[in-house]
Design a protein that fits this description.
single chain, mainly beta, 1 helix
Length: 139
Amino acid sequence: MVRAQLRRIQKSDAGTFGVLSVGTFQSYSGECPWRDNASGLSCIPPGVYKVAWAPSPRLKRNTYRLIDVPERSGVLIHSANYVGDRTIGLKCQLLGCIALGEKRGTMDGQTALLLSFPAVRRFEQYLDGQPFELEVADA
């Protein structure tokens, strides 16, 4: 089975940022800040997860879904720009999922992922719906 790596390199209230790579594919990643694995608010714990291509009723299309995340469900890989801690007033477009971006930058004064939609499409095309394992590690 193909194995992808997500290496987290920066953590703050504005989000958990890293780099996701698999084969020749590479992009930036963004997740919510660590909030004790709280569903909808936190990035996931480091570990190795199986990932399946599956329908998402919320996104109304197939997307990659992480399987067997401890005490969590519905962890997807999809597009988003903002990944901050919404409980302190920062913008966030995730509910504990993983976003990808072609670049990292700033939007409205907040650290953000840029060109997220193209990065997710490129990732999905690269893997072509095949399942894989994702190793998530803190730097």
